[in-house]
Write a structure and sequence with these properties.
Number of helices: 11
Strand content: under 5%
Number of strands: 0
Number of domains: 1
Largest sheet: none
Order of helices and strands: HHHHHHHHHHH
CATH class: Mainly Alpha
Length: about 260
């Protein structure tokens, strides 16, 4: 029994324990259920990215307070993932906490990441196709979609990796904070500011880019498939580094103690 009220936040050591337990549950999900939840997460992040595209239409997408509003609406995606329940690759970087304690195997971790990554791609790209048939991308929103896709395709490799790492540090911190909250409202507030910050700062989220590139193609962008895949590879690597090493391993050491040989 916890000795705090339902309105109080869990303390960090308790959060670490809860995240490890959640990681075990994620690793043991049946493949079909995992894939469906991953597709839903891809759709959810895609809706946030579509909302961001609309907010950035007619304004300078690089600077200014509009970027903050874009970050706020983009937060919709992670809110739906966390409160609604879905499997998101970037947030699942926190599963490393359970893996290093051998509560899940490396094989289970990689299985989850692979299935969830594929599902996220299906959901995000599928939503972009739906927007392509909606007629909304024939309007000025389409010009913004092209600009976003082309900017991401032209991002140098090192920039993409570092921006991916910084992005997922904030995403995983947002997920960490949601485990502190005991109410849906608390979880939403926990998500809002870290996610708004990563969008405002121009950082790179692999699952969001799974939506942005197909959205750009649907609007007529001339981005090559190779450039899009290269961006996804670099950003994904950065996301794993930032979320897995930058947040998961750091907090695991800080709150669950030094690693010990459990063989």
């Amino acid at each position: 029994m916890d000795d705090i009220s339902p309105l109080d936040a869990y303390k960090p050591p308790r959060i670490a324990s809860l995240i490890e337990t959640a990681g075990v549950a994620k690793a043991n999900l049946p493949t079909a259920q995992m894939l469906v939840l991953a597709i839903l997460a891809g759709v959810f992040i895609g809706f946030g990215a579509a909302a961001y595209t609309t907010v950035m239409t007619g304004v300078d997408p690089g600077f200014g307070p509009a970027r903050l509003m874009g970050g706020i609406v983009f937060s919709l995606g992670l809110i739906l993932v966390i409160v609604g329940g879905a499997e998101l690759f970037t947030g699942n970087a926190l599963m490393i906490m359970a893996a290093v304690d051998r509560k899940t195997s490396i094989r289970q971790l990689l299985r989850n990441w692979t299935v969830v990554y594929i599902g996220n791609l299906i959901g995000a790209a599928g939503l972009a196709v739906a927007f392509g048939f909606s007629g909304l991308l024939d309007a000025p929103m389409g010009d913004t979609a092209i600009t976003l896709a082309e900017a991401k395709a032209n991002l140098p490799a090192l920039d993409a990796i570092v921006r991916g790492a910084l992005c997922n540090a904030l995403v995983c911190l947002a997920v960490w904070l949601t485990f502190a909250a005991r109410t849906a409202a608390g979880k939403i507030l926990a998500i809002l500011w870290p996610i708004s910050a990563f969008v405002l700062l121009g950082l790179e989220h692999s699952v969001a880019n799974m939506y942005f590139f197909p959205q750009g193609w649907a609007a007529g962008a001339s981005v090559g498939l190779g450039a899009a895949l290269a961006n996804l590879a670099y950003v994904t690597l950065g996301n794993i580094i930032g979320g897995g090493a930058g947040v998961a391993l750091a907090y695991r050491f800080a709150y669950l103690g030094p690693l010990v040989d459990k063989s």
